[in-house]
Amino acid sequence: MKRMYILILDDLSVGHAINTACHAAVACTLKYQDSPEVEEWLDTSFRKVTCKVSRAIFDRAILKESDYVIMTELNLDNRVTAVAFKPRDEYHKMFKFLTLYK
Predict the structure, then answer these.
(1) Residue 56 has pLDDT above 90, yes or no
(2) Among residues of the chain, what percentage have pLDDT more than 70?
(3) How far does CA 75 lie from the centroid of its chain?
(4) N or C: which end of the chain has fewer CB within 10 A?
């Protein structure tokens, strides 16, 4: 089942985290909207997994996977806040151990 992972940096306030997760999902969907993977994801699962991660884990994740959108927050001086990965069936094994955002 295809799913989109959204990784939120752990030092964001809850308000910024919620907004950046929403923006990341939309930006990633729009960027890859013409790909077969996104078309299938939209039609069959639309599943998203949102995780809270440290900067080290964030950096490691973007090295392990391709096809992603990095978000910045204008109100935080264009600071990097999140990354959303194009929906896919399989991710690097490290993704199984990420902490869900609660």
Answers:
(1) yes
(2) 100
(3) 20
(4) C
Question: Is residue 75's pLDDT more than 90?
Answer: no
Alpha helices by DSSP H, listed for 2-95, are: 14-31, 36-44, 55-64
User: The CATH number of the domain where 7 resides is what?
Assistant: 3.40.1490.10
Tokens of 27: 């930006």
Task: Say if strands 79-85 and 3-9 run parallel, antiparallel, or are unpaired.
Answer: antiparallel
Whether pLDDT at 55 is above 90: yes
What is the residue range of 53's domain? 3-100
Contact criterion met (CB below 8 Å) for 27 and 84: yes
pTM as predicted? 0.96
Query: Considering its fold, how many domains does the chain have in total?
Result: 1
